[in-house]
Structure formats: C-alpha cells, structure tokens
Design a protein that fits this description.
Blueprint: E1 4-5, E2 10-11, E3 16-18, E4 21-23, E5 29-31, E6 34-36, H1 42-79, H2 84-95
Length: about 100
Amino acid sequence: MLVRNPINKSIAEQTQEINGVLITPVDTIKYLGTYLTSELSRRDTIKARCKQAMQCERSHFLHQEDQNALENRQVNLQNGNFSLHDIWSERSSINQK
C-alpha cells in the first residue's frame, strides 16, 4: 500500500497509522516484477517499467540464442557431421557475448 502526500504527490515522509495499521513509507517497492519509484510520478514509473522490461527481454534473448546453439549441436550430432572446428567456432561465438 502506498501512502501519497496529496500536496506534492510523493510518498508521505513519516510513519502513519491508518485503521490501526502502522504504515512506513519506503523508497522503492518491487510489486509483481514492476518497480514503482519513490516520487510516484507517472513518467518515472513508466521509465522504471520500461528499463526492467528491456533487461528481462535481453536475458530472454541471450537464453534463446544459447538454446538455438544447443539445438543445432544436437542436430549435427544426429547427422554425424559435427567436427572439432564446429565446436571451437561455436564456443568462441558464445564466449564473445
């Protein structure tokens, strides 16, 4: 739960009690994979979401490339045309990432 200060639209600076529950504001909250900023401005929140989405997509892309390399290696092994040169060139291309 975020408590906003209605005057400047930021998180309230002191601990507040609402309906008998003590609320302590924090700077950053991670909620379902999305980071909310301490300022609670729409621009900053969207910026943080976009940054996290790009990081997730990049890690997914790198995983997908490794998975494709593994599938290619398995196909070549089944066909019997997998040479030592192929192994070294594939390892060097993966290590360059």
